[in-house]
C-alpha cells in the first residue's frame, strides 16, 4: 500500500519543514530549498515492489541537495546504498554529481548514486518518478556505477526510450501482486538498469566532467565541513581554494544562491535540525547557535525567524507538531 505525504493540510509556515521530512522519508535525507517566496506545495507517494522503492513526486520549484553531512549521519554501506533512476514526467531538472552536470528534460532519464553527494535543481513545478535499486542487486563493479552516476539519458530513442516506457508504465500504477511476482518484476527492472550501466562508454565519463562543476562541489563540501567557524566567509572560502573572490562569485552565478547566503542557509539548517531533536539534557539555543557559527545570538534569532517563521525557542517547542503523521 502506498504511503502518501502532502503539504495540502499543513500550515504555510510549517510546509518547508514538513516537506523536507517527507522527502527524506520517501527518498533519502536531503536539504530542501524552495525556489520561490510563497508556501511550497508538494505531494510524494512511495511504495515497495520487491527490492525496489518507488516514489512519485509532484511539487513546486525547489533544490534538493544530499551532502556529505547527510551521509555522515546515516552513512549507507555499499551493501545498502542505492542507485536511483528518475523519469522526468513534467518540468525540467539539473542533476549534479561527481563533477558532472546534466540537464534533464521532460521524458528523460537521470541516474545518480544516493551513497555520494548530489543535487537536483528543479527551476519550475515538476513531476518525477524515482526508482531506488540496491547497489548489491545490480552486481556491477564500482567503476561501472561511478561512470554512470550524474548523467541524463534521452527517453526518445534507443535503449533510453525502452527503459522510459517500461518504468513509466510500472511507476504510474504499481500493480498489487504476490511477493513472488513482485520479485520477478523487480528483477526485470534491475536487469534493464544493469544493462544500461554496463553499456555506458567509459570515455563518456571524462567527456561529461566539467572542472568548474567539480570545484563547486568541493567548495560546497568545504562549507559544510567548516560551518562552525564564525569566520567562514566568501573571502576565506576563496583563499582555501586558491581562487579570487570574484571568480568564486562567478562560479556560483548558476547555483541560484550566493556563497554568503549558502553559508547562512546551511548553518540555519543545522541549527533547525538540532533544535528539532529531543535529546536530554538539551543544549541552550545560544549554545546551538554558537556551535554552528553564529556569534551573535540576537542576529541568529532574527535570521532564524525570517527563514522559518518562528523564533528558535518556538521552533523547539513546536517540534512535536512539525513531525508528520502517517
From TrEMBL:
<feature type="domain" description="HTH araC/xylS-type">
    <location>
        <begin position="217"/>
        <end position="318"/>
    </location>
</feature>
<protein>
    <submittedName>
        <fullName>AraC-like DNA-binding protein</fullName>
    </submittedName>
</protein>
<dbReference type="InterPro" id="IPR035418">
    <property type="entry name" value="AraC-bd_2"/>
</dbReference>
<dbReference type="InterPro" id="IPR050204">
    <property type="entry name" value="AraC_XylS_family_regulators"/>
</dbReference>
<keyword id="KW-0804">Transcription</keyword>
<dbReference type="InterPro" id="IPR009057">
    <property type="entry name" value="Homeodomain-like_sf"/>
</dbReference>
<keyword id="KW-0238">DNA-binding</keyword>
<dbReference type="Pfam" id="PF14525">
    <property type="entry name" value="AraC_binding_2"/>
</dbReference>
<dbReference type="InterPro" id="IPR018060">
    <property type="entry name" value="HTH_AraC"/>
</dbReference>
<dbReference type="InterPro" id="IPR020449">
    <property type="entry name" value="Tscrpt_reg_AraC-type_HTH"/>
</dbReference>
<keyword id="KW-0805">Transcription regulation</keyword>
<dbReference type="Pfam" id="PF12833">
    <property type="entry name" value="HTH_18"/>
</dbReference>
